[in-house]
# Entry
Amino acid sequence: MIHKIEIPTPFAVGDVNSYILKGDALTLVDVGPKTEVALEVLKAGIKEAGYVLSDIEQVLLTHHHPDHSGWVNAFEHATLLGHEYNQAWLTRDVDFFEYHDAFYMQCLMEEGVPESYFHWLEKMKRPLNLMGQKSLDRFLKEGDALPGHPDFVVLETLGHAQSHLSFWSEKTGILIGGDHVIEKISSNPLIEPPLIKENGRPKSMLQYNAALKRIQSLPVEKVYSGHGNEVYDVQELIESRLEKQKERALKVFDMIKAGEKTIFELTQELFPKVYEKELGLTLSETIGQVDYLLDEGYIVEHKNENGIFLYEQA
# Structure
């Protein structure tokens, strides 16, 4: 049985969903942001299901973003499970954050972003004050059976986050999908530092699309998602999302017809009204479209003498 708790967040996305999963272990999937309001709602939702906080035996994170990982500390006796990528964030790993800042600075330079925007580096950090601080007890990876819930298997569904996991039960046709498949909106594949530095920048949009196609190939009947209502007709929804994604990428392709462009120039053209307010999100979106066009052979990339990537039609 799955019991849903809708938790308010201070983010534009609105409420986040947490789920109580009953099985051989009493599991809570995602824990809302670290605000007092969220904690009160979480407590009330757990009580409504017939439990108290201390009854929860394990906490499961779909990914590390603060609207999902805030109250891990409220469950002192519960086992904390999630993708290894959560660990650096939840333990405030100093080396990771030094690398994190260097990674984004290099990205801004390669994207042709003017120095006057480099103050955005601080905003690239997720709001740590809304994120929990507790070490994972166990890393989950692709193909693992979910402890306490043997019908569910762990799927790596990277793209929106480099830590993103979904949980699939073939027996019931149920997917606990986090932010991978949401009813009303398509998740933004975000640019994040890789878990292994040597691997270079993850191509989040390509990861996201590949993971969507994988979910589309499964006999999913119902998705319990991270925001909004449960999702049905999953295959049709994914088909529509992939088609719209291609249309957005071809819009960027048209922008390059007149000559070579940087990521920043394309971002200004794509999001003229919001890029200054939401530089991180809009750059991520543009990079995603460019990665798609490169992968499909529509465009080519080269670096100029200043280390800035330029894109032109193939």
Remarks:
- The chain has a mean pLDDT of 94.
- DSSP finds nine helices and 13 strands in the chain.
